[in-house]
Amino acid sequence: MKKLLIVSSVVALFASSMFAADGATIYKKCIACHGAKAEKVFNNKVPALTSLDAAAIVASLQDYKAGKANKFGMGAMMKPIATPLSEDDAKAVAGYIQTLK
Question: Where does the signal sequence lie (predicted)?
């Protein structure tokens, strides 16, 4: 019984890490507007993502996803990008952006 419990725990741990959100991969969709290092100031309005903390990025993505945000008039552009992102995806991409500072 103990062996079964240990094996199932190891399998669960491996599976969860295998499907963990990859912020770098997710961010590839953002490069065109925000730059490879999240340094671009888009449309002379949107601040560089590296100037924001992770919590602000996650909150913005969630608001865009819910259709509650139209910061800098970018709601229509950001909603389809944010909609497929899970909360874990948003946290992963926000964490990745923090590494670019």
Answer: 1-20
CA angle, 42 as apex, 38 and 46 as ends, to 5°?
A: 90
CATH of 22-99, one of 1.10.760.10, 3.20.20.80, 3.20.20.70, 1.20.58.100: 1.10.760.10
Percent of the chain scoring above 90 in pLDDT: 72
Paired residues of 42 in beta bridges: 46
N residues, the chain: 101
Q: What is the pLDDT of residues 41-52, one digit of tens each?
A: 988 889 999 999
Residue 85, both tokens: 């992102």
Name the nearest CA neighbour of 93 among 51, 63, 49, 32.
49
